[in-house]
Amino acid sequence: MSRTARANKRNPVTARRGPSLNAVLTGVVVLVAVLVIGGVLVLDRSGGAGGASSGTLVPPDAHTLSKAEGDQVTLVEFLDFQCPACASYYTGVTKKLEQDYRGRITFVTRNFPLEGHPLAVPAARAAEAAGKQGKYAEMYHALYDNFDTWATDGRSTSADTARATAKFEEFATAAGLDLERFRADSASAEVQAVIDRDVADGTALGVDSTPTFFLDGEEFSAGGSTIADAERELRARIDAALAG
Question: For this UniProt entry, which segments traverse the membrane (predicted)?
Answer without folding.
Answer: 21-43
